[in-house]
Amino acid sequence: MDAATLKTLQAPLKEAYRDTPEKAFITLRAKGSIEDQSIACKVETGRALAIAGLHPATGGSGLELCSGDMLLEALVACAGVTLKAVATALEFRLDGATVTAEGDLDFRGTLGVAKEAPVGFRAIRLGIELQTDEPRERIDSLVKLTERYCVVFQTINQRPELSVTALRL
């Protein structure tokens, strides 16, 4: 896809969202069900069924997906798509790119072993390797815009309002 095609695709959406801002508000949903025989959750991805389970550092077998890995994978996916869209819009010469994410966890918090150990990632690092001959200023702009428009990055960075509701069936 080139910049003109991308702009043509996005122009009517941008116009509609400017004219009627409520059209831009969309609620995304995910759904999963717990397993009967193991400590796992079947997550409906829309394309396939993903089975998430305990990480081996918390007693899992390693056969199921780890939700921490899935979070990092979502970050990589979003950053990669955003990077490509921004590069396309900027007509940035990009021969290839690799996006990586790594995060540091202290499983003492997850297992309730040490109250001072946090539950969740202490740090997440996103890395981007670019195959390009573009000047440093354009690379810096690409990275800055990718960070700005990556939904998963900004969600983690801004910490959205969270709530939990439990219903008895």
Describe the structure.
With 169 residues, the chain is of the alpha+beta class. It has a domain at 67-158: 2-Layer Sandwich (GMP Synthetase, Chain A, domain 3). 39% of the residues lie in helices and 22% in strands. The protein has five helices and six strands, in the order H-E-E-E-E-H-E-H-E-H-H. It has helices at 3-19, 67-89, 107-110, 136-149, 151-158, and strands at 31-34, 40-44, 49-53, 65-66, 96-105, 121-131. Strands 1-2-3-4 form a four-stranded mixed beta sheet. A two-stranded antiparallel sheet has the order 5-6. A hairpin with a 5-residue loop joins strand 1 and strand 2. Helix 2 (67-89) crosses helix 4 (136-149). The radius of gyration is 20 Å and the shape is globular. It starts with a helix and ends in an 11-residue tail after the last helix.
Point out poorly predicted stretches.
Answer: none
| Coarse morphology | globular
Structural class: alpha+beta
Report the CATH topology name of the domain at 67-158.
GMP Synthetase, Chain A, domain 3
- Estimate the helix proportion, in percent: 25-40%
What is the CATH first-level class name of the domain at 67-158?
A: Alpha Beta
What is the CA-atom radius of gyration, in angstroms? 20 Å
Number of strands: 6
Strand order of the largest sheet: 1-2-3-4
Distance between the ends: 48 Å
Helix tally equals 5
**Oligomer state of the chains in this structure:** single chain
What is the string of SSEs from the N terminus onward?
A: HEEEEHEHEHH
Q: What name goes with the CATH superfamily of the domain at 67-158?
A: K homology (KH) domain
Give a short account of the largest sheet: 4 strands, mixed
- In terms of DSSP E residues, the strand content is 15-25%
The average pLDDT value, as a whole number, equals 93
